[in-house]
Amino acid sequence: LSKKEGKQIFKGMNFLITAGATREKIDPVRYFTNHSSGKMGYAIAEQAAKLGANVILISGKTDLNPPDRVKTIMVESAQDMLEKVLEYYEETNVVIKSAAVADYRPVVTYDKKLKKQKDHLTIEMEKTTDILKELGERKNKQLLVGFAAETNSLEEYAKSKLTRKNLDLIVANNVTTEGAGFGTDTNIVTMFDRNLNKVELPLMSKRDVAIKLLEKIETMMKEERP
Ligand code: CTP
Ligand code: CA
Questions:
Q1: Which residues contact residue 179 at a Cβ distance below 8 angstroms, ignoring those fewer than 6 apart?
Q2: Is 198 annotated as a binding residue?
Q3: Ligand 1 centre and the CA of 101: distance in Å?
Q4: Which of 84, 152, 162, 182 has a 20 to 30 Å separation from 173 between CA atoms?
Q5: pTM, whole model, 2 decimals?
Q6: Nearest partner of 206 among 83, 55, 36, 73, judged by Cα
Q7: Which domain holds residue 201?
């Protein structure tokens, strides 16, 4: 694992990494979000920078400190994240989308606090843009890496996301397994590349998952440009 450490294997390459959860506002005091500590994405950003990449990290709210030598940009909603990502996409070589993006947002955001009234409240939601799918459609030279958070049928769902979003690699995890997923310092992931080669990693720290992922990316880049 450590043999690549400190080597500048990504020197001159631009990486765009997203992390954390987006927040979709209901009113000035409330929002919809989902579980994501940001730890996986921050670990990838940190390790990519150590390996010499120029890293831009576009992050939803987290409790983490911005990694050293990484340009970190904080965003709030899925729409904000989409706009920031598109701003940098053209000059990017590798995109890694580990953020937990909200799939829906409230149709209306109230500018005053909603007052408690009826016994039941219905909030109408609309789909957000699928950022990764959008990137897949606009892809020219970029290597595109997605994540898949699943509770069941991991392999089937992960492969369908890989194809549907025109990705080069997908990193899937079962978020209900102990030691994997939200908030933990460890993860258990399976990667599928665009040729459906499968790499199953055992339980390891998110830092080590980040290194394994980056090594896989390096291998894929070498295969393209030997
Ligand atoms: N993603 C995205 N924009 C969205 C939703 C998801 O860019 N609006 C990205 C995530 O960052 C992740 C990948 O798509 O890299 C898969 O996210 P996931 O939630 O697992 O899959 P979805 O396609 O949203 O499908 P579902 O939630 O129904 O499983
Ligand atoms: Ca989703």
A1: 186, 187, 188, 203
A2: no
A3: 6
A4: 84
A5: 0.95
A6: 36
A7: 2-101+124-224
Number of domain units in the chain: 1
The CA 130 to ligand 1 mean position distance, Å, reads 7
Whether ipTM tops 0.95, in short, is yes
Is 14 buried (19+), middle (13-18) or exposed (0-12) by CB count in 10 A? Answer: middle
C-alpha dist (Å) from residue 80 to 45, 100, 102, 171: 20, 14, 12, 24
152 is catalytic: no
Judge residue 101's burial from the number of C-beta atoms within 10 Å of its C-beta, 0-12 exposed, 13-18 middle, 19 or more buried: buried
pLDDT tens, position by position, for the chain (226 residues)? 556 666 899 999 999 999 999 999 999 999 999 999 999 999 999 999 999 999 999 999 999 999 999 999 999 999 999 999 999 999 999 999 999 999 999 999 999 999 999 999 999 999 999 999 999 999 999 999 999 999 999 999 999 999 999 999 999 998 888 888 888 999 999 999 999 999 999 999 999 999 999 999 999 999 886 5
Domain containing residue 181: CATH number: 3.40.50.10300
Q: Which amino acid is at 178?
A: E
